[in-house]
Amino acid sequence: MRVPTLLSFLFLRVVAAKLEVRDGQTATLITFPATPTDLGLKQIPDDAHPFIAPGPDDQRGPCPGMNTLANHGYISRNGVATFEEIVLGSVEAYNLEINFAAFIVAGNMLMRGNPFVNKLSIGGESPLVPPLPGGIGGSATGGMSKHGGFEGDASMTRADAAIGDNADFQDILYDLDLLSLGQFGGDGPEGPNTLFNVQTMSAIKQRNLQMDQMINPEFHFTPIRAVASFTEAAFVLGIFANGTTNQSSLSTIGSFFRNQTFPPNWHRAAAPVSGLVLGGTALAIQAGVDPSIVVASHNDAQGNLVPDTPPPAPFDANLGCGFYFDLFAHMPAGLANATGVLKQNVDLLANAVRASVGGSACNQTLAPFGPPDN
Ligand code: HEM
Ligand SMILES: *[C@@H]1O[C@H](CO)[C@@H](O)[C@H](O)[C@H]1NC(C)=O
Ligand SMILES: *[C@@H]1O[C@H](CO)[C@@H](O)[C@H](O)[C@H]1NC(C)=O
Ligand SMILES: *[C@@H]1O[C@H](CO)[C@@H](O)[C@H](O)[C@H]1NC(C)=O
Ligand SMILES: *[C@@H]1O[C@H](CO)[C@@H](O)[C@H](O)[C@H]1NC(C)=O
Ligand SMILES: *[C@@H]1O[C@H](CO)[C@@H](O)[C@H](O)[C@H]1NC(C)=O
Question: Helix 340-357 to helix 319-329 angle, to the nearest 10 degrees?
């Protein structure tokens, strides 16, 4: 009798030491996943990941990449997932380089998720993602669809939040994108002008920016958007391409955007796609757009596009530094004050962001410094 009692007492002590509960939420320690060993060409999806359309309670949002992962069960099909799940799903299905994947997921988790319970909604608010403990993040975690973080204006297939549906695919916007494809696309197996290329993406972004500036009185191309929106355009060429041919064809891109499913016989990239490669493509796309509209800017009360007030030195050095500053400006300052598991999680996530976008450009260690709700 004595031995089992002692053992169960010790067992309970161990469990109790691991559980940290705040505001009724149980902490989950985030870990940086090990890099998978198979990083080559591979057909996606495999048999274990069939397409299943989302149900009414499943979260989907502005990212066709994440929606597709959820529709195939590479992350939870309910659209609420952990840091590790999204990082590993992105590596497995898209061969995104793991540190770059970690940076994007970490940034989204710190701005729009709950890093105490390690949950992020790829769509809107969800009962599965409670508000941050202690009220440090306002009354709700917004999810990826919440405007003002990575989600912002001048998207390729989503409307601006101030004037329309910023989360769901919009046929009319994609039809306009296809007009640019018809004009600038390369010739391929599916016919003349059927391959998305840099010139096509530049034309799409030029129109996204010009049109939204004209029709959206609250148009704001934030420093985050000035970098992220061109990187998202680079995803179309660098990640959605069939890894066997490196071609982003009309039917392939249509499958991701319209149906949020992998095209038949699709292969992920043959080698990990790094932030450096995607950033290079993003710069090439940006170079084809009118330089006066690619800067951080917004509409004034008269509807004229005016540049944003630059961030304080040294973050005004270049767009990359402005991006870095703007990211931490959208993370609740209370996260920088965290203790216990939350502190460990915030440190891991903030380090993943700093590793990708801090660096020598501004060489400053930032911690979250934004308002609780932004
Ligand atoms: C893994 C490869 C990924 C691909 C191929 C991808 C692809 C894209 C594309 C093409 C867009 C632009 C949609 C448009 O302009 O209409 C986009 C937007 C977005 N992505 Fe992803 N993405 C990836 C990873 C991620 C990750 C890991 C996250 C966060 C966890 C994320 C969050 C977002 C958000 C919040 C937007 C909305 C931005 C906006 O247009 O306002 N993405 N993504
Ligand atoms: C596709 O791109 C990768 C990486 O740049 C390269 O190694 C490969 O040779 C390319 N494949 C084709 C068919 O062009
Ligand atoms: C999307 O799915 C529908 C229904 O399965 C199919 O008819 C259509 O060809 C698909 N479109 C693309 C671009 O994959
Ligand atoms: C990808 O390329 C391979 C080799 O050319 C081809 O067999 C396959 O059908 C292509 N898949 C798509 C979605 O284009
Ligand atoms: C950080 O903690 C200090 C000390 O507890 C407190 O005074 C301050 O208001 C906190 N800041 C935020 C942003 O929560
Ligand atoms: C960053 O600044 C520190 C001191 O402020 C300096 O020692 C270090 O070399 C700098 N690193 C880079 C990459 O510029």
Answer: 170
pLDDT of residue 226: 97
Q: Tell me how far the alpha carbon of residue 342 lies from the centroid of ligand 5, in angstroms.
A: 15
Q: What residues in the chain have per-residue pLDDT under 70?
A: 1-18, 359-361
Tell me the three state secondary structure of residue 305: strand
Handedness of CA 151, 152, 153, 154 (dihedral sign): negative
Domain boundaries, the chain: 23-362
Instruction: Give the pairing of strands 25-26 and 21-22.
Output: antiparallel
> Within 6 Å (CB) of ligand 6, which residues are found?
360, 363
The DSSP symbol for 373 reads -
pLDDT at 363: 85
Residues with CB under 6 Å of ligand 1 are: 62-66, 86, 90, 94, 96, 104-105, 108, 144, 150-152, 155-158, 232, 235-236, 239-240
* Per CATH, domain 23-362 is 2.40.420.20: no
Ligand 6 centroid – CA 363 distance (Å): 6
Q: Where would I find the beta strands (DSSP E) of 201-273?
A: 220-221
Give CA–CA dist 112/108, Å, rounded.
5
Residue 1: the pLDDT is: 41
Q: Nearest-CA neighbor of 315 among 305, 327, 323, 307?
A: 323
pTM over 0.85: yes
Ligand sitting nearest the alpha carbon of 241 = 4
| pLDDT in the model for residue 170 | 98
